[in-house]
Amino acid sequence: MDILRSIDSTNFTPLTVFLSVVVLASAGTVFFPQLPVQIPTALWLILTLGVPTLLAIVALLAAVGDGFCIHTFVEQLLSIGTLVLVGWTIATVLFSSSGGVNFGPLFVLVAASVLAITLLSGLFVEALKTRSPTA
User: Fold this and answer.
1) What does pTM read for this prediction?
2) Would residue 135 count as lying in a domain?
3) Residue 40 domain-assigned?
4) Distance CA 4, CA 109 (A)
5) Structural domain of residue 81, as residue ranges?
6) pLDDT at 8
7) 24 exposed, middle or buried (CB, 10 Å; 0-12, 13-18, 19+)?
8) Using an 8 Å Cβ cutoff, are 52 and 23 in contact?
9) Rounded to an integer, what distance in angstroms lies between the CA atom of residue 125 and that of residue 95?
10) Which runs of E-coded beta strand occur in 1-135?
11) 39-77 as b/e: b if 16+ CB within 10 A
12) 35 with 29: CB under 8 angstroms?
């Protein structure tokens, strides 16, 4: 339990910002596919499953380390929801015996985008609160 007390969200701030921007950029490439280049399948899987998973884990650790309040509760719910969707998508890909279209990565990107926007807006609000007024 001492490890959880030593976790502070400021330790994860640069990583959170980086992963949030990557998630939002990858969501943009999926939702607006008019790109002149084709994204390789391996990179697409990393962008749609790997990066959202890392973002959810980092956000969950930071929220647990910050203690309980309403914004950390929302971040925890969104993180857990994103992780559940990632697990559902991986299980569908690995164990599905029927054909069809898998919309799991799309759902993961939507959930991770909502999480990323929530985290970035929370960091923005914290930066505004800690900013000292100039005289």
Assistant:
1) 0.78
2) no
3) yes
4) 28
5) 2-130
6) 55
7) middle
8) yes
9) 42
10) none
11) eeeeeeeebbbebbbbbbebbbbbbbbbeeeeebeebbe
12) yes
Q: Is residue 88 part of a domain?
A: yes
Residue-level pLDDT, tens digit, the chain, 135 residues = 455 455 555 566 777 788 888 888 877 777 666 666 666 777 777 878 888 898 888 888 887 777 777 777 888 899 999 999 999 988 887 887 777 777 888 888 889 889 888 888 887 887 787 776 654
Residues 6+ apart with CB under 8 A from 129: none
Report residue 95 as tokens: 């164990």
Number of domains in the chain: 1
Nearest to 124 by CA among 58, 60, 71: 71
Which amino acid is residue 84, in one-letter code?
A: V
Return the pLDDT at 105: 82
